[in-house]
Amino acid sequence: MKDILQDLVSKTHGLGFLELVKVNGEDGATKFDSLAEDRSVILSAETHSPVAEFNSVFGMPNLDKLSLHLKNPEYEEHAKIEVVTEDRNGETVPAYMHFENEAGDFQNDYRFMSKEQIESILKTAKFKGAKWNTVFEPSHVAIQRMKLMSASHSDEPIFSVKTETAGDSTNLIFVFGEPSMHGGRFVFQNDVEQPLSHTLSWPVKQALAIMNLNGKITMSISDQGVMLLSVDSGLAKYDYFLPAQSR
How confident is the model at residue 137 (pLDDT cuts 50, 70, 90)? Predict the structure, then answer.
């Protein structure tokens, strides 16, 4: 269980803008949902194998505290990490996570939110689907080039995406800044499937943070105004939906 907790924390709290997670362990699957406070990113994730201890619906708040417990050297080896349940209204539900070192003389508890609390705060976003113009795995080189361009335009919170056709190739272009000001652009991906009918924009910080995560990354872009960054860590698949923004 420690592995999936570390994975979850790195894919949420580690990004710097997802600090509350809804866990849904019903129907024989373990799913995680989260939403950035500014609604710039919607996360929908599912583990490859169900987590037996997460067999209910509850919330995980204050992920900074959970992160500290998971990094604590007292719990590095032979620690006991377990989900403790309580009876509420005739139902047995996860109440908190108990951390205890091998000697039993160093302990911490991390409390969950109840199903009612988390569902009142975080509504599960239902993605209605989109027609993807292009789906591909960004190369390491392309991501590094985006970092370089972002550093050159550190005052730009938004980057724009468009396609341009050169000969028989349709290329995906990332644009920073305005042409009349200090601007920059580069080819992020060659030979995409379908051109975009118009230019779309997304937040730099969030997109780069997700692309910097460990795992297999897939990018999907739709003319309907959404970018999907999927990250498969080997333990779970994390789908980050980014609605397009206005410049």
Answer: very high
Average pLDDT value for the chain: 94
Dump strand ranges (E) for 101-215: 107-111, 132-136, 158-166, 169-176, 184-189, 200-203
Residue 134 carries which side chain, given as an amino acid letter?
T
Residue indicated by tokens 């000697």: 103
For the four alpha carbons of 137, 231, 75 and 16, in that order, the dihedral sign comes to positive
Q: Please state the rounded mean pLDDT for residues 212-223.
A: 97
Domain holding 47, by residue range, is 2-121
Cα separation, 86 vs 76, whole angstroms: 27
Query: How far, in Å, are 58, 68, 208, 213 from residue 50 at the CA level?
Result: 15, 24, 29, 22
Give the chain's domain count.
2
Query: Residue holding tokens 């980050």?
Result: 240
88, part of any domain: yes
Per-residue model confidence (pLDDT) at position 126: 65
Provide the CATH number for the domain around residue 186.
3.10.150.10
Q: What distance in Å separates the CA atoms of residue 180 and residue 206, rounded to the nearest whole number?
A: 26
The pTM of this model reads 0.95
